[in-house]
Write a structure and sequence with these properties.
The chain is α+β, with helices and mostly antiparallel strands. The protein has helices spanning about 30-40, 55-60, 100-105, 135-150, 245-255, 255-260, 295-310; strands at about 15, 25, 45, 80-85, 90-95, 115-120, 120-125, 125-135, 155-160, 165-175, 185, 185-190, 215, 235-240, 265-270, 285-295, 315-320. It folds into 2 domains: about 15-125, Uridine Diphospho-n-acetylenolpyruvylglucosamine Reductase, domain 3, CATH 3.30.465; about 125-320, 2-Layer Sandwich (Alpha-Beta Plaits). Helices cover about 20% and strands about 25% of the residues. Strands 8, 9, 10, 11, 12, 13, 14, 15, 16 and 17 form a 10-stranded antiparallel beta sheet that branches. A 5-stranded antiparallel beta sheet has the order 1-2-6-4-5. Strands 3-7 form a two-stranded antiparallel sheet. Strand 11 and strand 12 (about 185-190) form a beta hairpin. The protein binds flavin-adenine dinucleotide. Flavin-adenine dinucleotide binds near residues 65 and 229.
Length: about 325
Amino acid sequence: SAELVSLEELTGTDVDVAADRRTVTVDAGLRYGELVTALHREGLALHNLASLPHISVAGAVATATHGSGVGNRNLAAAVAGLELVTSDGELLRAARGDADFPGLVVGLGALGVVTRVTLDVEPAFQVQQRVFEGLPWSTLAERFDDVVSAGYGVSLFTLFGDDALDMVWVKARTDAAEGPVGELFGAREADGERHPIPGIDPAPTTGQLGAPGLWSDRLPHFRMGFTPSNGDEIQSEFLFPRRHAVAAIEALRGLSGRIRPLLQTCEIRTIAADDLWMSTAYEQDSVALHFTWRQDQAAVQELLVHLEAALEPFGPRPHWGKLFLADAA
Ligand SMILES: Cc1cc2nc3c(=O)[nH]c(=O)nc-3n(C[C@H](O)[C@H](O)[C@H](O)COP(=O)(O)OP(=O)(O)OC[C@H]3O[C@@H](n4cnc5c(N)ncnc54)[C@H](O)[C@@H]3O)c2cc1C
């Protein structure tokens, strides 16, 4: 029979750095915000982060949570080893290279309770974040790959206005080629800090305007200690092969009249392919279309019928941790 296990008391905060400083092993319930504090002390970094540091390592890994960047795989792809307690109480340890390891990592909680996770790390790096406004849809269609490759991580935000995207957030590493400054394919650099949801105070967001900062203070959009996003919302997200990005965005623009009334913001990101069986980026370089909806589940579900149908030709994979209608088949 079905059983649920509460992990409320899985609150350990151990972080062990390997002797070669290429991996760290952490308690699974640790939140990324706590992990980055420990990594700072060691001068180490993860390759990428999601839009917020509030989530746990185990929860993010189990659901294939991702950040952005054409060369960046999702957060689960950094997992080099796992320890879990299976339903018969056995302790199972597995490492990258073991048979079936790629089936264990994005496990959706179905394989047992993950207690320790080993993650790849690298030397700490710095990032500059800049926001560009008003990129015409026609330019995005012509230059999609160039736009999403403009930095280490790029996020596009839109409310499906008629002429242009609202914002392009570019996160560029200071140890790589400089990201765009002042202008990006005709979009102008914002004259102040911005929140991903237009009209909301940008105080909770990470530093922008090109000020260099630590990887962990720039790769997420939201700072630890503040409410991420709006806090009152429903989310959906669909991933599919990046080569379909322009056609899929066009299909959604055809639904914009229905989408706009329920939408707080839509974010478009890219994720590099991985080999994790249940990953939304399994064996395909992907684009992700995320929707932050108003808190009206009945209306959102009604809209999802049309939205999932519009995306169907592109082979969408729903984000495991967000609202979708598609069944197992
Ligand atoms: C404001 C906001 C912003 C977000 N931004 C992003 C983003 O940028 N990118 C993205 O991809 N997603 C994003 N998400 C979605 C989020 O990353 C996922 O929902 C993630 O699962 C949340 O992590 P959690 O620690 O809260 O998970 P939980 O809700 O605690 O766990 C999710 C699932 O993971 C499994 N699980 C958790 N812990 C364990 C364990 N110890 N052992 C076994 N299984 C376990 C269980 O199946 C559980 O139901 C966002 C969500 C919010 C609310």
